Amino acid sequence: MTEPIDSRYGGLLLNRLDRMLYGVEVGTAVIGGGVIFIVMWVGVAEIFLRKVFNSPLFGQLDFIEQTMCTYTLLTISYCYRRAGHIRMELIVSRLAGRPRWVVETLTAIAALALVTAILPGVVHYFDNAYAIGDSTINTQWPTWPAKFVPVIGFCVLWLRIVLELWAYLRLVADPDAQPIAVPTHPSIIEETAV
Fold first, then answer.
1. Could you tell me the pTM of the whole model?
2. Over 50: is that where the pLDDT of 1 sits?
3. How many CA atoms lie within 13 A of 116 on its CB side?
4. Which of 43, 65, 106, 146 lies most in the core, judged by the most C-beta atoms within 10 Å?
5. In Å, how far are 31, 44, 93, 106 from 71, measured between CA atoms?
6. Is the pLDDT higher at 187 or at 118?
7. 91/130 Cα distance (integer angstroms)
């Protein structure tokens, strides 16, 4: 039986938005995982064709370069939500209650500022590639689809951090409130069991 959602400070809306965004994050992570799987088999085909038939796979390098951002940046928000990113847990894990949530809030503000600062440049690179018709060297494939992927990845991450900031501010206001939309860090035992 699940615990009822704490409705204080917008808990119900926060939970609903968190679940909706998590669905998007899972979808982008599945796409990223599928692309890695395809990239792996393209690499196998390249090695096989080069060694056995002395005929390299045309466009293999362009394909790899074009898909790199898909499996790195589309999955970043999912990783962030699952607390799979690198964090300094030495200090934060020793804090409890309001001091912990204040530190987490400050961290979320810094992350939001960083992503907000990066996002216009990412959009500019996509817009520039689309406007000038930029293409890869060997195959002449357009680069704008690959440059649009970071826009999607960073926008999803930006939304995740905004929700996380709301969640932390909610916990600063009431440290006893139910944590919603907060990354849960697995214990060492849980991590090794998986």
1. 0.85
2. no
3. 9
4. 146
5. 8, 18, 30, 29
6. 118
7. 45
